[in-house]
Amino acid sequence: MSMYSRRQFLSGAGALGAATACPGIWAATVAQSGLSSDEILRLETQAAGFSNPLRLPGSSGLFGVLPATDFKEVHVVRSEIEVLPGQRTPILAYAVESRGKKFLNPALLARRGDEMRVKLINHIDQPTVIHWHGLSVDSRNDGNGLNVVAPGQSMDYAFALQDRSSMYWYHPHAHGYIPQQAYHGLASLLFVEDDDEAALRKELALALGESEIPLVLQDKEFDAQGRLQYAPSAAQSFGGWVGNRLMVNLTERPRLKAGRRIVRFRILNGSNARSYRLAFLQDGKALGFYLAGTDGGLLAQPLRIDQTFLSPGQRLDVLVDFREANPTRPVTLASLPFDPMHQEGGHDMATMDHSQHGATQGAAALAAMAMEGDARALMRIDLAPSSTPYDRRLPARLSSLSAPVEPAGAARRIQLGHDGKGHWTINGGVYDHTAVPLTVQRGARETWRIENAERSMPHPMHLHGFSFRVLERLGSPAPVRSLAGARGLLPQDQGVVDTLQVWPGESVRIAIDFSHPHQGDQDYVFHCHTLEHAEAGMMMRYAVKA
């Protein structure tokens, strides 16, 4: 439970009301959420001391920008970088050499229709594999963990990028090793461009790394030598690993300089388990911004909001017009306080391991999870005059995305819960790599009703192979309901998504089109993207029959 009490939050956590009559506008003010100007100013004061330059994509090195077609021979290696100032941190990384330059975890740039030809070579002492998160590829190339690359071995990928423009990402997916490998660095971004994306960049004069800024949010824990710590107790494995230090692009206490213009932020929650309640703050209040896109690309039109939740695995595409801000004061990107709603029922997590050491670990796990909903400053943004006059305006339409259509027929029921023995479950079962408990037909259009138990935790559910649309939320807890519009939908529910946060007691209906161009039967997984939850059983195979 957050130190900001659940009762306080439920009594005042508002922000986004129902959509107003003005298209593309979501009514919202943080002042209505119960967060006072003084509390907002405390977050701004916290960010005032941030001084580390935000790590941005460059032409090489860590997060260097690389054409996806040059991402050909990829080596999984152990390396080290400076994360904390003055200290070297061992990490895992995807290493690439291309055209005389060396890259670690390169940010890939691609055009819809590009062909990917990748050889993955594993140099570490654990099995691994690349999962292309959000991409609609055949199961052989999906990297779903059913086939992995053993130490010293290699695997070839070959597929076409057929998805809408968006910021996707790639990370490991070898069951038994997913959380620790991702936590230690194996992850990066993949930008896919199409005509809608190119038009938006031209309209707003956006440039990656300058006025278009990718932000990867993570929480880490370090020892005195700057080495990453990851050794979850039973309680932390059940609840999810929450680090005590917040990072943006592997930069702690980051500072960014931005022009007084429309700036685009492409945001990924790359944490193992932590969710964020994001807002841009200045002078004791929240700045409105525009939600432009979600996991699977641009919305039909921008939505004006002033805060939103972001759960593990999810991405947001937001536009902030800093001409609306006070040019003499910095802007703070923050996570506002919220109740993380850890309602696991019969589990006394501090005593899951009854040894003295285990009880101490359990208490530490509870304390760490209490931090998840704390108010925290994430980044300081200093405003400066743009070098050239900027008179661009946000377009009224961003893409031709149509409204979702509900498939005919009864909904397929998916129940999320736990077995009371430290395992998370889907439809009462825990992950078994030999079993395929769910089968659908190629070309089927289905409605799934995903129900989370009342005594549970939030679960960001990720579907491999296909994206989907959200139709309705029912039974949402008050903090979520207060952010919703018609049919209980949150702003990010308006887009194409591949990862869906389902809160305790909530029932969410989604529409999935299982059409695909691949040959033969396909074999994927559906799982919670709180990575420890997936390892603790909340994952299942599903087959798409030709």
From TrEMBL:
Q: What are the boundaries of the signal sequence? A: 1-27
According to UniProt, the reaction catalysed is:
4 Cu(+) + O2 + 4 H(+) = 4 Cu(2+) + 2 H2O
Family annotation (PROSITE patterns): MULTICOPPER_OXIDASE2 (PS00080), PROKAR_LIPOPROTEIN (PS51257), TAT (PS51318)
Please state the Enzyme Commission number of this protein.
1.16.3.4
Broad class of enzyme this protein falls into: oxidoreductase
Give a Gene Ontology cellular component term annotated to this protein: periplasmic space
InterPro entries (UniProt xref): Cu-oxidase-like_N (IPR011707), Cu-oxidase_C (IPR011706), Cu-oxidase_fam (IPR045087), Cu_oxidase_Cu_BS (IPR002355), Cupredoxin (IPR008972), TAT_signal (IPR006311), TAT_signal_bac_arc (IPR019546)
Keyword set includes Mitochondrion: no
Keywords attached to this Swiss-Prot or TrEMBL record, sorted alphabetically, are: Metal-binding, Oxidoreductase, Signal
Q: Where is the Plastocyanin-like domain?
A: 101-195, 416-545
What GO molecular-function term can you cite, just one? oxidoreductase activity
Q: Where in the cell is it found?
A: Periplasm
Any one Pfam family here would be Cu-oxidase_3
Q: Which domain of life is it from?
A: Bacteria
Q: How does it assemble?
A: Monomer.
Q: What is this protein called?
A: Multicopper oxidase CueO
Organism of provenance:
Malikia spinosa
